[in-house]
């Protein structure tokens, strides 16, 4: 696993509209696909979507598609880099800044909706500050523990995606034309933390796992998430 890279630069992860991708997506880990799928070459990237308060895509159904829906997000892999397979309005922060009527369609009490824009911005800034501190140091305290999650398919995936039953009756998501994705692995955000030279500890305050699937035929990376 020596070729894997934690906290890669955004220019090495996103194919186009790099700044817009980086506004909503934090690159955490790049891996060689050949380590997981024999005969395949290239890079796959684990990225954390910034959607602090609610399930990803919960309120933005207008911008759902087959691959991007509640608690699922996908990217086209082009030249080993990611391109989001939906509009950026899929993310709440973008949506509420471009849709003045969001209070009429979003769930929640009036006080929550009135404060949502400011609260999201505050949470974004907090998470990005934590991320920047980790990126400065890069060396994880527990790198081996992070990699222990790359072995068996994850069982409890969110049931809002078409699936088939794989080995041991574990659900595997299907491509739009009905083929099973290849399971790559998962990482637990809580296991990503670093310690600097002054014995200060830094982590990203997000209690979730990123679960990755890949379709080598169409070069699509599919992610779902599960609270750890």
User: How does the overall form come out from the CA principal axes?
Assistant: globular
In what range is the share of β-strand residues?
25-35%
Tally of extended strands?
Answer: 12
Classify the helix fraction into a percent range.
10-25%
State mean pLDDT (0 to 100 scale): 87
The gyration radius over C-alpha positions equals 18 Å
Structural class: alpha+beta
Helix-strand sequence: EHEEEEHHHHEEEEEEE
Q: How many strands, what sense, and barrel or not for the largest sheet?
A: 5 strands, antiparallel
Identify low-pLDDT runs. Answer: none
Number of H/I helices: 5
Query: For the terminal residues, how far apart are their CA atoms?
Result: 24 Å
Biggest β-sheet: strands ordered side by side in the sheet = 5-4-12-11-8
């Amino acid at each position: 696993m020596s070729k894997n890279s934690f906290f890669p630069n955004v220019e090495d992860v996103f194919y186009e509209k790099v700044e817009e991708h980086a506004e909503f997506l934090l690159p955490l880990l790049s891996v060689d696909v050949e380590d997981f799928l024999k005969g395949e070459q290239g890079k796959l990237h684990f990225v954390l979507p910034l959607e602090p308060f609610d399930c990803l895509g919960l309120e933005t159904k207008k911008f759902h598609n087959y691959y991007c829906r509640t608690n699922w997000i996908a990217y086209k892999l082009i030249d080993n880099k990611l391109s989001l397979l939906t509009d950026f309005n899929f993310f709440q922060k973008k949506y509420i800044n471009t849709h003045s009527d969001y209070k009429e369609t979003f769930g929640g009490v009036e006080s929550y909706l009135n404060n949502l824009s400011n609260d999201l911005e505050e949470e974004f800034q907090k998470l990005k500050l934590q991320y920047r501190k980790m990126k400065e140091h890069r060396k994880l305290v527990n790198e081996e523990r992070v990699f222990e999650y790359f072995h068996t398919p994850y069982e409890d995936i969110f049931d809002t995606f078409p699936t088939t039953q794989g080995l041991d009756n574990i659900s595997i998501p299907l491509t739009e034309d009905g083929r099973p994705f290849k399971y790559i692995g998962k990482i637990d955000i809580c296991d990503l933390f670093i310690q600097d030279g002054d014995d200060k500890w830094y982590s990203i305050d997000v209690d979730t796992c990123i679960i990755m699937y890949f379709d080598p035929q169409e070069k699509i990376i599919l992610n779902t998430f599960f609270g750890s």
